[in-house]
Design brief:
This protein is α+β, with helices and mostly antiparallel strands. Helices cover 37% and strands 16% of the residues.
């Protein structure tokens, strides 16, 4: 067991404790070299065994272990499009899933730049058109998007994010959930978002993907 796989198990317990992983929903993975260690299908994120993860190659082929989460194409798509990606987290958290049922703010981000921390920690978050869970074509479309991002919303489904470490991915999805909750709480009331210049200044300073 490596420290990254141990961190994956700890992250699952943390996300479950925050109430972001109801039942056996959600899946996590880490990349080590040309191998992907992902939670098996039906895993309760509060009880991940770091020594019993499914092992895949970068194309999603089974190397060893039990049947992987059906969502594995999303994970391999992120690793294929971003050489620096080392972890992927997909949840069915309430607030972000709620926002995934709404019309997107723009072509590149489902959510507006409501706070500096959303821009700094998450960045533009495209809404991917609905597809059944585990759909390989949806994953391929995500991989082929021609602009940078480290988080996306799956329409009527939930969030998926990547990070350069397990900790980074967890911080990103928690911030995304908080921003989604803020957006929903505002309802239809007029709200101020950051201006284009304000958002781009933050994105440049913190190396965050934002082109809106």
């Amino acid at each position: 067991m490596t420290s990254q796989r141990a961190a994956l198990a700890a992250a699952g317990a943390h996300l479950a404790a925050l109430g972001l992983s109801p039942g056996s929903s959600g899946n996590l993975s880490v990349r080590e070299g040309d191998r992907v260690y992902i939670t098996p299908t039906g895993t309760d994120l509060s009880r991940i065994d770091p020594d019993a993860l499914t092992v895949l190659d970068l194309d999603g082929g089974l190397v060893s272990g039990p049947r992987p989460s059906k969502e594995f194409p999303l994970h391999t798509a992120f690793y294929q499009r971003d050489a620096e990606a080392r972890a992927v987290v997909h949840l069915h958290s309430r607030q972000a899933t709620g926002v995934s049922c709404l019309e997107p703010w723009s072509d590149k981000s489902a959510l507006p730049p409501l706070t500096p921390y959303f821009v700094m920690r998450v960045g533009q978050t495209p809404l991917l058109p609905y597809a059944p869970p585990g759909d390989r074509e949806q994953a391929a479309r995500m991989r082929a998007l021609p602009f940078p991002f480290r988080a996306a919303l799956l329409q009527n489904h939930g969030p998926v994010v990547t990070g350069t470490s397990v900790r980074a991915a967890v911080e990103t999805i928690v911030e995304l959930e908080e921003t989604a909750g803020l957006l929903l709480s505002l309802g239809t009331r007029p709200a101020r978002s950051l201006t284009t210049e304000e958002a781009r200044t933050l994105a440049h300073r913190y190396g965050s993907p934002w082109e809106g």
